Amino acid sequence: IIAFDNESYRKLMGAYCCGELINNIEEIPDAVDKIVKNYGYYRKNAFLAYNEFYDFDKQFLKLKAYLNLQLGTN
């Protein structure tokens, strides 16, 4: 991904270097160039980040377990 630099994306990139952060639109070509030159690395990390944070099925199981704990149900 290419995203504007903010705290949330900095945390994501710190855990999984899956893209480049930019401060303005003019930085997009350099960010694209970095990603294209090392595509396999970014791709692998993007899949890892997706599996950890964005996979709905995985996140839903965590939510379900939390709610069951709160409600005292299974």
Structure report:
- There is one protein chain.
- Strand 1, helix 1 and strand 2 (20-22) form a beta-alpha-beta unit.
- The chain is built from 4 helices and 2 strands.
- The model has no long low-confidence stretch (mean pLDDT 92).
- A two-stranded parallel ribbon has the order 1-2.
- The chain is mostly helical and 74 residues long.
- The longest helix has 16 residues, at 39-54.
Give me the count of strands: 2
Q: Number of helical segments?
A: 4
Strand order of the largest sheet: 1-2
Determine Rg (CA atoms, Å): 16 Å
Which H/E pattern describes the elements?
EHEHHH
Strand percentage: 5-15%
Distance between the termini: 38 Å
**If you average the pLDDT, what whole number results?**
92
- The helix fraction, in percent, is 55-70%
Class based on secondary structure composition and strand pairing: mainly alpha
Residue runs with pLDDT of under 50 for 5 or more positions: none
The main sheet comes to: 2 strands, parallel
Q: What would you call the shape?
A: elongated
Q: How is the topology of this model organized?
A:
Elements lengths: L1 E3 L2 H9 L4 E3 L5 H10 L1 H16 L1 H16 L3
Parallel strand pairs: 1-2
What keywords describe this structure?
two-stranded parallel sheet, 74 residues, mainly alpha, 69% helix
Compact description:
The protein has 74 residues and is mainly α. The protein has helices at residues 7-15, 28-37, 39-54, 56-71, and strands at 2-4, 20-22.
